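Quick question, first post here. What does this chain look like in 3D?
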Amino acid sequence: MKGKHIEIRAAEERVEVIVDDYELFDYVDDLLTGKGLEHEFTSEEERDGRIFYKMHFSGDVTQAQLSGVIATIPRDEIERIWQMNN
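> Answer (accepted):
Ran it through. Tokens below.
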């Protein structure tokens, strides 16, 4: 699943959620944690001079689980949070 500011992708034996803004990353992290989907660790990646924030989940967490929760976030709410810093 890839949205405008949030991407979910399989990477080797785990799933990653990649977000292009720290405030939005924090919001998504809180939402997923509240649903019992806690990541193992986080990292950052630079692409074209921009920082992307990643949550790395264990193999027990599926793309479908993450997509289901993230799909509940209204698109206008994602955009509103993203606009706060960009």
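The mean pLDDT is 93.
Residues 22-34 form the longest helix (13 residues).
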